[in-house]
Amino acid sequence: MGLRMAIGVGTIALLVAACGGGGSSVQAPSEDGVLRITSYDRQDYDADAYEAQAGTVRFEFSQVGVQEHTLLVEGLEEQMRLVVVDGNTDTGSLDLPPGRYILYCDIAGHRASGMEARLTVN
Ligand SMILES: [Cu+2]
After folding, report:
1. What span, in angstroms and rounded, lies between the C-alpha atoms of 60 and 88?
2. Does pLDDT of 60 surpass 90?
3. Of 121, 115, 116, residue with least CA distance to 43
4. Distance 36 CA to ligand 1 centre (A)
5. Which CATH superfamily is domain 2-121 in?
6. CA 83 to ligand 1 centroid distance, Å
7. Ligand 1 centroid vs 67 CA: distance in angstroms?
8. What is the pLDDT of residues 21-47, one digit of tens each?
9. In sequence order, what are the residues at sequence separation of 6 or more whose Cβ sits closer than 8 angstroms to the Cβ of residue 73?
10. Residues with C-beta atoms within 5 A of ion ligand 1
11. Fewest beta carbons within 10 Å, which of 57, 61, 90, 98?
12. Cα–Cα distance between 102 and 118 in angstroms, integer?
């Protein structure tokens, strides 16, 4: 019984990892306007796409697991680079006009393994 459960959990973990980056999960804006993004050890964010309201977009970036990760907006790297390590949460904000943006982690190899997501600002 114990062994069977362990195999089941492992299979689910593999399925989740396989879906990372290739799925279509979209995280809608939170009620308080803060864009909350979580990073995982499987080198992925908690959604493949996020939405936010134009104007000052506040980011709250957190970590589940032990791997250090970063969060940057492509083209706006000079303005914001959030880092999570040792379970901390990092916050920042950007003034974003409506448009489509790419979020990614700039730690070597992470973006290539799927650590990027879309951000649509409406
Ligand atoms: Cu990363």
Report:
1. 11
2. yes
3. 115
4. 16
5. Cupredoxins -  blue copper proteins (2.60.40.420)
6. 9
7. 7
8. 445 688 887 888 899 999 999 999 999
9. 79, 80, 94, 96, 101, 102, 103, 119
10. 69, 105, 107, 110, 115
11. 98
12. 5
